[in-house]
Design a protein that fits this description.
Blueprint lengths: L3 H30 L3 H27 L19 H28 L3 H31 L3 H11 L4
Helix pairs in contact: 1-2, 1-3, 2-5, 3-4
The chain binds MU-OXO-diiron.
């Protein structure tokens, strides 16, 4: 049976993962409004990933005899200055998610919850990848600045995400 403290923290993490999905969907809508379909595609894939993350927490709570509780989602930002600002936002956001996962790992250790600790290792590794992906895109944007050709090239590149 899952402890109340872990259940509460995991339910809060479900909300954070769904907030992330919602934020990335808002970014997709921004890119669609700018006719940057490749970037929009990247964000839609990212939003789906976040939904999967939320579901992992959902299933873990269920499998351990806990009770999933859903909260209201944050209204995401709608506008950004340019695509570079959007991806900087993604990188900052993922750093916050990493901090949140690390807090959960500390909680699992404090509560001596081995199952939660092992479960969270997947997220520790996933966050390395999430931050690296966003950071790589930010670094490329730093090189192209606001070159229109560079933006189009980036849009084509990001359309390839599976
Ligand atoms: Fe679920 Fe992007 O972290």
């Amino acid at each position: 049976m899952i402890k109340e403290t872990i259940q509460k923290a995991f339910n809060e993490q479900i909300k954070k993962e769904l907030d992330s999905a919602y934020l990335y969907l808002s970014m997709a809508a921004y890119f669609d409004s700018q006719n940057l379909e490749g970037m929009s595609h990247w964000m839609k894939v990212q939003a789906k990933e976040e939904f999967k993350h939320a579901m992992k927490f959902y299933e873990h709570i269920n499998e351990r005899g806990g009770r999933v509780e859903l909260f209201g989602l944050e209204k995401p930002v709608k506008e950004w200055k340019d695509p570079f600002e959007v991806f900087k936002h993604v990188y900052e956001h993922e750093q916050k998610v990493t901090a949140s996962i690390n807090n959960l790992v500390e909680l699992a250790e404090r509560e001596n919850d081995r199952a939660a600790y092992v479960f969270l290792q997947w997220f520790v590794n996933e966050q390395i990848e999430e931050e690296a992906n966003a950071s790589k895109i930010v670094q490329t944007f730093e090189k192209i600045k606001d070159s229109p050709v560079g933006i189009i090239m980036m849009d084509r590149e990001l359309a390839k995400r599976e």
